[in-house]
C-alpha cells in the first residue's frame, strides 16, 4: 500500500469514527444551570451528572451516548442529557448529587436516583420503569399470566377505590426505582388465589403469595421494602447496598465460586436451607444469600476475610457480626442468629467518623498493594510519579473532604426532610461503599 493510500484510509476511518461519535452524542444534550427554568413540566429527562476528572464518568460516556441514540430511535418520550456538575453546581445541588457519575431521572416534580450496574440494559430498564405509569393496570388474565412469568417478585393491588389504594400509589411513586407495581380486579387473579378480604395488596413470589396486613406489617412502604427481594439472594455490591433500606441483617456465605470446596458448598446449602425452611421464622429479621469473592466484604470489615466464611452484616450502619465459633450445622447457625438478634454478639465496624477514615485508609492500602504485587515495576513508577506530583494528591484529598462534607450536610438535610411531609424520598444519596471514589 502506498503512503498516500494509507493516509487516505486512516483519514477515512478516523472520519467515520468521528462521525459516529458525533451522531451518537447528538442525542445527548449538554445541560447547564439554566435547565432548571427552561425544562417544560411535561418533559422527562434522564440525566448524568459528571465531573471532568472522574474516570468512571468517562467509562460511562459511550454507554450514555448509546442510550441517547436508542431512546431517540425508539421514539421514547425520555430526553437524555449530561451535566458537568463541577461547573453547574446549583443544578447538581438541586439534584442532591454527591458522587459521580450520578444518574437521575426527572419526571413531574420527582427526581429519581439510579443505583445499579452502569450498563445500557440496566439503565434503560430503570428509565422505562420510572418514566411509565407508577401503577400499571392488568386488565386481563392473559396479561396477568404474562407479567407473572416475567417478574420474580410481583406487587399487585386488588380492589377498587380505597384508602389502601391511595397508600399503594404513593408507595409505588417512591419505590418505582426498585420494582414494578401493578393493579388488577379480583376476577383477573388466578383461581388458586383466594383473598379473604378486598381491597388487598399482594406480593407474588417463589410460587406463592403473601398479603399485606397493616396491623402486623406496619407501614406499606416498609413492608414492600422487605418483600421486594427473593428469600435467597446471590449478592453483588448493588443488592447488598440496597439491603440498607430493608432494615434486615444480611446473613451470607462468602465463597470463591471458581474454587468450590466441600466447606463452601456446605455453607451455601446452609444459607439456602435457612432461607426456605426457616422462612416464617427468620424472614422478617434476616436476609440470606451468598456472595462470590471477598473483595467487597473486605472493604467493609477492613480485613481479609478467609473464604469460605459466614458473616452477618447490618447494612444500615455498615456494622458486621462474625460467628465466635464454627457455624457448620443448622443448630450452630440458629445459635448464631439468635445471638445477633438478641445483641449478644458485639457489632464490629460501623459508619462512625473514625470508621470511615479507617476504611478510606484500608481501601487505599489495598489498591496500592494490588498494584505492587501485580505490577511491581508500574507500582514503582507510580510512586515516583506520585512523589513528583504530590499536589495532585492534595487535590484529590481536598475533593474527598469536600465530598464527605457535602454528604454530611446532605444527610442532615435529609434527616430534617424526614420530619416534613412531601419530602423527595427517592433522591437517595448514601454512598455505595464498593464504589471507590472516582477521583
Ligand atoms: C442495624 O442498624 C440499625 C441502624 O443503626 C439499628 O437500628 C439496628 O438495631 C441494627 N440491627 C442489629 C440487629 O444490630
UniProtKB/TrEMBL annotation:
Its EC number is 5.3.4.1. Residues 422-439 have a biased composition (Basic and acidic residues). One of its GO terms (cellular component) is cell surface. Residues 17-132 form the Thioredoxin domain. Residues 1-26 form the signal peptide. InterPro entries: PDI_TMX3, Thioredoxin-like_sf, Thioredoxin_domain. It is an enzyme of class 5 (isomerase). It is found in: Endoplasmic reticulum membrane. Keywords: Disulfide bond, Endoplasmic reticulum, Glycoprotein, Isomerase, Membrane, Redox-active center, Signal, Transmembrane, Transmembrane helix. Probable disulfide isomerase, which participates in the folding of proteins containing disulfide bonds. May act as a dithiol oxidase. Acts as a regulator of endoplasmic reticulum-mitochondria contact sites via its ability to regulate redox signals. This is protein disulfide-isomerase. It comes from Esox lucius (Northern pike). The lineage of its organism: Eukaryota, Metazoa, Chordata, Craniata, Vertebrata.
Amino acid at each position: 500500500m502506498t503512503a498516500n493510500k494509507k493516509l487516505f484510509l486512516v483519514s477515512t476511518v478516523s472520519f467515520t469514527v468521528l462521525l459516529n461519535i458525533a451522531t451518537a452524542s447528538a442525542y445527548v444534550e449538554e445541560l447547564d444551570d439554566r435547565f432548571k427554568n427552561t425544562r417544560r413540566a411535561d418533559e422527562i429527562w434522564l440525566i448524568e451528572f459528571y465531573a471532568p476528572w472522574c474516570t468512571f464518568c468517562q467509562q460511562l460516556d459511550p454507554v450514555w451516548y448509546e442510550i441517547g441514540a436508542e431512546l431517540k430511535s425508539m421514539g421514547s418520550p425520555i430526553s437524555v442529557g449530561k451535566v458537568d456538575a463541577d461547573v453547574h453546581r446549583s443544578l447538581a445541588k438541586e439534584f442532591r448529587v454527591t458522587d459521580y457519575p450520578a444518574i437521575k431521572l426527572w419526571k413531574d416534580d420527582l427526581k429519581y436516583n439510579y443505583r445499579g450496574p452502569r450498563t445500557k440494559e440496566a439503565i434503560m430498564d430503570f428509565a422505562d420503569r420510572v418514566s411509565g405509569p407508577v401503577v400499571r393496570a392488568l386488565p386481563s388474565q392473559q396479561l396477568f399470566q404474562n407479567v407473572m412469568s416475567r417478574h420474580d417478585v410481583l406487587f399487585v393491588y386488588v380492589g377498587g377505590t380505597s384508602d389502601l389504594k391511595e397508600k399503594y400509589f404513593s408507595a409505588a411513586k417512591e419505590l418505582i426505582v426498585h420494582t414494578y407495581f401493578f393493579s388488577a380486579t379480583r376476577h383477573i387473579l388466578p383461581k388458586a388465589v383466594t383473598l379473604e378480604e378486598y381491597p388487598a395488596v399482594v406480593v407474588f413470589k417463589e410460587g406463592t403469595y403473601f398479603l399485606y396486613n397493616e396491623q402486623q406489617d406496619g407501614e406499606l412502604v416498609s413492608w414492600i421494602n422487605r418483600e421486594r427481594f427473593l428469600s435467597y439472594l446471590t449478592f453483588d455490591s448493588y443488592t447488598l447496598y440496597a439491603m440498607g433500606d430493608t432494615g434486615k441483617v444480611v446473613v451470607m456465605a462468602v465463597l470463591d465460586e471458581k474454587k468450590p470446596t466441600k466447606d463452601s458448598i456446605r455453607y451455601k446449602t446452609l444459607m439456602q436451607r435457612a432461607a426456605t425452611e426457616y422462612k416464617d421464622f427468620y424472614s422478617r429479621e434476616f436476609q440470606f444469600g451468598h456472595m462470590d469473592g471477598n473483595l467487597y466484604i473486605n472493604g467493609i470489615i477492613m480485613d481479609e476475610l478467609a473464604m469460605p466464611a459466614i458473616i452477618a452484616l447490618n447494612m444500615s450502619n455498615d456494622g458486621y457480626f462474625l460467628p465466635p465459633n464454627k457455624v457448620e450445622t443448622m443448630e450452630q447457625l440458629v445459635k448464631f442468629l439468635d445471638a445477633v438478634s438478641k445483641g449478644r454478639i458485639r457489632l464490629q465496624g460501623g459508619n462512625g467518623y473514625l470508621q470511615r477514615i479507617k476504611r478510606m485508609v484500608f481501601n487505599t492500602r489495598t489498591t496500592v498493594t494490588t498494584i505492587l504485587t501485580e505490577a511491581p515495576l508500574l507500582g514503582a513508577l507510580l510512586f515516583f510519579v506520585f512523589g513528583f506530583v504530590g499536589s495532585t494528591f492534595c487535590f484529590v484529598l481536598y475533593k474527598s473532604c469536600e465530598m464527605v462534607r457535602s454528604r454530611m450536610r446532605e444527610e442532615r438535610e435529609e434527616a430534617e426532610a424526614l420530619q416534613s411531609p412531601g419530602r423527595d424520598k427517592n433522591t437517595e444519596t448514601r454512598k455505595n461503599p464498593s464504589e471507590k471514589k472516582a477521583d
